[in-house]
Design brief:
Layout: H1 7-15, E1 18-20, E2 23-31, E3 35-42, E4 47-54, H2 59-63, H3 68-80, E5 90-96, E6 99-105, E7 110-111, H4 112-115, H5 124-143, E8 146-147, E9 156-159, E10 162-165, E11 172-173, H6 193-196, H7 203-219
Antiparallel strand pairs: 1-2, 2-3, 3-4, 4-6, 5-6, 7-9, 8-11, 9-10
Helix pairs in contact: 5-7
Length: about 230
């Protein structure tokens, strides 16, 4: 005998949150080159979190030695050693179904990139206020031996009265032996000259990238407007 599922039960199943580990995935917040970020609920602590999970199509690449899982671990280590009001906090790391994840502080709002959609410049006071908070975050990170290496509007979260730097997936921990000269990580239109050349970078590279961000925030236009290194 085949039992039919009632329409009400089907609707309830569709509304039920998707579980990933102990976390309930509520909605997708955005996608990057390596991960998908979800708004999630931690039932254990009864709080909202942001959960970044490795994109499923990249799992097979990991088996080929690309090292994406190591990148996720590096992001957690870099951000986890930093405790600053303008840096997104890491709450947990783990792996589910062969895909690593990072659980982070959730901020209501969006990114600076969202505010700049359509080439809309920000008022001077708003742009300077955001950049000053990012400066404070970078100063703290640099003093604790971490260079972000991918400062751009998409990695700056902006909420009511708050600005936070996120995505330390390309960060370099100063003195770490695994960072090699010649590594091309970052976003071309915001890269410092030394990054474009594939040289080892220091904190000054983050400041160059932030200068590009400030220019774009004030004018609505990226000064380089390039999507690849050759164009830069």
């Amino acid at each position: 005998m085949i039992e039919e599922t009632s329409p009400a039960a089907l609707r309830a199943a569709e509304r039920a949150p998707l579980l990933y580990g102990r976390y309930e995935l509520l909605s997708e917040l955005g996608r990057g080159t390596s991960g998908i970020v979800y708004k999630a609920h931690d039932p254990k602590l009864d709080r909202l979190v942001a959960m970044k999970i490795l994109r499923p199509e990249l799992v097979s690449l990991e088996e080929s030695g690309v090292g994406l899982k190591q990148r996720f671990h590096q992001e957690a280590v870099a951000a986890g050693r930093l405790a600053h009001p303008a840096i997104i906090a890491v709450h947990d790391v783990g792996e589910g179904e062969g895909r690593p994840f990072i659980v982070m502080e959730y901020i209501e709002g969006g990114t600076l990139a969202d505010l700049l959609l359509g080439g809309r410049p920000l008022p001077l006071v708003d742009a300077v206020g955001i950049v000053l908070q990012v400066c404070a975050a970078l100063d703290y990170a640099h003093r604790h031996g971490v260079v972000h290496r991918d400062i751009k509007p998409r990695n700056i979260l902006v909420g009511p009265g708050v600005t936070k730097v996120t995505d330390f997936g390309t960060a370099r921990i100063l003195g770490a032996s695994h960072t090699q000269t010649g590594s091309m990580l970052g976003t071309p239109a915001y890269m410092s000259p030394e990054m474009v050349r594939g040289q080892v970078v220091d904190p000054r590279s983050d400041l160059f990238s932030l200068g590009v961000v400030l220019y774009e925030a004030l004018t609505g236009v990226n000064p380089f407007n390039a999507t690849d290194l050759a164009a830069v």
